[in-house]
Amino acid sequence: MIGPRAALLPANLVQDAVRLALAEDLGLAGDITSRVCIPKGQQARLAMVARKPGIVAGMALAAEAFRQLDEKLVVTFAVDDGAVLAPGQPVLSVTGDARAILAAERTALNFVGRLSGVATLTADYVRSIASTQASIVCTRKTTPGLRAFEKHAVACGGGRNHRFGLFDAILIKDNHVAVAGGIIPALQAAKRGGGHLVKIEIEVDTLEQLDEVLAEGADVVLLDNMGPERLREAVGRIRARRPAMLAEASGGVSLETVAGIAATGVDLISVGALTHSAPVLDLGLDIAMA
User: Exposed, middle or buried, 108 (CB in 10 Å: 0-12/13-18/19+)?
Assistant: First the structure.
């Protein structure tokens, strides 16, 4: 069975994502290589092993890939999502019908490698700002169809989730401000039209725009593409006038710059690279006859 952290992913989302991935790989004819090369009924044991250090994520998807090909396959997990991996450390093993194992292995590995890469990169960012009060958060710059899983991986790496989509929070960006006629009209319209449980965040890129936000009020202000000195000034103004308002920094964030950004006193640092540029974690698959 998968561990409690991996089990947090909604089962219906896991099943649907795996079904689509397997359909993409197997097409109309299935795994023709295994069918012609592997005797029917041949038993095998597959081991997934870490080749590089990192944080694992995606175990529920791996389990589902094997389950959908053959419910009789026995999947054994050595770790749960969020575990720290060392090179050579076992991740999971699968025993049963060799054809089914070989047909599902790439889908399982793709999910775990991709999501573990996201978790690992997130952990690197989190470590870089560990001495500050700031939190690392992800964005909507996710792989289409994999957002829930990539955001889960961010949490496994110690980061926090931003909004999941356009539906669960109001985030007024520069284009919204331009169409709405300015910061004040945009904020006032959001307060009139948003539900009482819906948070309002607004993006600014100048201190003058920030002053308008501070005059009108919002739950969160997104300080976009500001250098450390301007961020520090912005945080000072927020703390003086609206201490309950959260300050989020974004734009130009990298592993080289994130510590300096966090040192300005911001509450949140949003990093698109967590999900759009994370390298796949190197994992190996070794198979033997059972």
Answer: buried
